[in-house]
Amino acid sequence: MRHLRLLSLALPLLFGMGFGLTPAAAGSAPGVGVVPQGFQSDAAYARSFRTAGVTNVDATTQRVSCYTPEVQYAGSLAPNDGYSGESACNGAATTGEALGPYPTQAGSNPGYGVPPADLVKDHSESDIRVDPTNSQHLIGQSKWIVSPEGYNHVLGFYESFDGGNTWSVQGHVPGYEGWTDNTDPVGAFDRYGNFYSMILPYQFFYNSDGSHNFQTGSKEPNPTLPNDVIAMAVRPHGATGPSDWISTHNGGPDYVATYDSSTNGNGPDKQWLAIDTNPNSPNVDTIYAMWVDFHFATPVPFVSTAKALPGGTHTDWSAPLRLPEPAHSPQGVTYLLPHVDGNGKVYTTLTNSDPKKHYCCDAISVDSSGDGGKTWTVAGIVNGNIAPPPLEYANTQFRDGIEDTFTVGQLPVSGVYPLFVSYEDYSAGHGNVIVTASYDGGATWTSFEQVNDNASAVDAFQPNLTSAADGTISLAFYDRRLACPAANSSEAAGAGLAKDTLNLNYSGSLPPYGASNYCINSTIQFYDESLSPIGHNVRISAHTWDPQLNEPKPGRFNGLEGFIGDYYGNITSGSTDYTTSVSTFDDGTNPENRQQQIIATIAVP
Asked: Is 330 buried (19+), middle (13-18) or exposed (0-12) by CB count in 10 A?
């Protein structure tokens, strides 16, 4: 997300209560409390990291990155919560990337796009992909943040050639440094091993109180560039250097869509992409680029397509096509998450919140296309009555993220590839993760089930689905079932809890030693294609961490809203599941308790 909480849609539909081993709480939505694998004790969950053989690698502490931001920001919240403001690089970079200024900064207004290069300190929001030509080659992406207080960032990447053990190549994704921020990391490999990074560059400058000013016209940091763009950068197969990216097409920037200063009231967001890599598909090599345009606060969904070519190039992007929405969609849709099935049919979820219901109730629908994105239909409604989470979660300041996740199974069932959707439900007064499946192309959906198997009333959130080649479904999410570490413990020291001294959304004592529904772990649950759970939730983070430390501030530097990312990455390769997610824990390589990207690996059961 850029800077708004983004809203969604669909139609009401009633479903059964599923297995019903535990009755749902009064007033809760279907699926809440329906835990087929049964509830798990916190002690068993805490041990599961070791018993399941999970490994963790801190990817983003392995290199030091710096770049010259388009807009410098001097505000600082130090010394509270570990903040230290923006810091000049001063020769600290070890990535070998270009430090700037950059070609797209040439038209900047005075005072913008000038050194010093600044130290990248935090790494929020996560995406990870595996090269189909080499299972040992992975690329992860996140926001590359030089000032968490100012939410000042571009996109960065971290690359492994040994199956995630080391992340030897890192740096910011080049080509769009002339915009204030580049945001929302998401990528995909084509079948040739080229990696596509879909980017949302946008401009703003800082008001005197530290808030962001998106005013268009001559006051923009760089008036020679469009205010907002949907764009692409491609890392070609065989690239080894941090700056080996292709960000141009037909002699100019690789724009998918532009939103100029003249289009006041418009703003793109929520970009996502998928590439058809199946050589037997009638739509092989089709790139599906999706986003929404917030037209005077109403999000309108669009898709553009191109064909991937060897060498990291592609055909021209098609004119943006508006996706169909179910009837009665007054607010419009967002959260477009395209996936391609084994027959070359592409699906995406769409999410909507109805203003006539005061945004109380979200709904999820599915669109599909079988002709390479030329025409689209509404395939069906997943759920039309979902209670969304609040903007900020209880006890801490980080905001909610993308509410739902979507994947397509890799093995057909009766000739049809199954669809899986998971989403957050807040009807019980805290976050639960719900999952459902469709075996008829999205027309009907199975009974809802609760994924998180914690017995305590704490938050589970930001689910992320993926599917393995053997049909296994993987569902990863954050949760807060384990209390923050106790005072005077080594875990509390590593978590940096002593630095947590200012929290605008907490009535308890600080530092938060032993606090409930506060600190965070990462979790995974496996299913077979019939949506039967395989075992219990597994803890995939070695350490419980504190989200208050160094969290970026999307609104203003001293505001309530904080940020740990709106989603995180989950992908499988062969018999291994890889996730990339945030942690501020110091494992010996993160003494300032910055937001770092942790790669967790676990065997697919």
From this structure: exposed
Going 364 to 369 to 375 to 378, the CA torsion angle's sign is negative
pLDDT in tens, 528-564: 999 999 999 999 999 999 999 999 999 999 999 999 9
DSSP H/E element including 44 = helix 42-51
The b/e string for 267-302 (b: 16+ C-beta within 10 A; e otherwise) is bbbbbbbbbbbbeebebbbbbbbbbbbbeeebbbbb
Q: What is the mean pLDDT of the segment spanning 230-244?
A: 98
Using left for φ > 0, alpha for ψ between -120 and 50, and beta otherwise, residue 582 falls in: beta
Percent of the chain with pLDDT over 70: 92
Q: What is the pTM of this model?
A: 0.94
Residue by residue, DSSP assigns 1-17 as --SS-------------
Give the C-alpha separation, 460 to 522, whole Å: 10
DSSP assignment of 93-150 equals --S----S--GGGTTPPTTSS-SPPEE--B--SEEEEEETTEEEEEEEEEEEEEETTT
**Cα–chain-centroid distance for residue 103?**
28
pLDDT digits (tens, 9 = 90+) for 456-501: 999 999 999 999 999 999 999 999 999 999 999 999 999 999 999 9
* Rounded Cα distance, 581 and 127, in Å: 8
Domain boundaries, the chain: 54-603
The residues, ordered by sequence, that sit 6+ positions from 261 with a Cβ below 8 Å of its Cβ are: 216, 217, 220, 223, 226, 227
Q: Which amino acid is at 434?
A: I
More confident residue, 394 or 356: 394
* Residue type for position 598: I
**AA letter at 303:** V
Cα gap 257→226, rounded to integer Å: 10
Tokens read off for 446 = 């199975």
Q: In the numeric block, which tokens belong to residue 120?
A: 């990248």
CB 73 within 8 A of CB 59: no
CB 170 within 8 A of CB 158: yes
Q: How far apart are CA 67 and CA 70, in angstroms?
A: 10
- Spacing of C-alpha 390 from chain mean position: 18
Q: Give the integer Cα–Cα distance in Å for 339 and 347.
A: 5
Q: What is the mean pLDDT of residues 86-96?
A: 98
CA 297/CA 4 separation, integer angstroms: 9
**Residue 334 to residue 364: CA distance in whole angstroms:** 10
Q: Which helix (H) or strand (E) holds 43?
A: helix 42-51
Nearest residue to 460 (alpha-carbon basis) of 437, 440, 482, 442: 482
Structure token digits, residue 141: 């992406």
Secondary structure of 550-594 in HEC code, one letter for each residue: CCCCCCCCCCCCECCCCCCEEEEECCEEEEEEEECCCCCCCCCCC
Two tokens at 265? 């009231």
Query: CA–CA separation, 333 vs 187, rounded Å?
Result: 22
Name the helix (H) or strand (E) containing 45.
Answer: helix 42-51
Sheet with 596-603, strands from edge to edge, namely 55-58, 596-603, 576-583, 569-573
CATH code for 54-603? 2.120.10.10
Report whether 449 contacts 435 (CB < 8 A): yes
Residues in the chain: 605
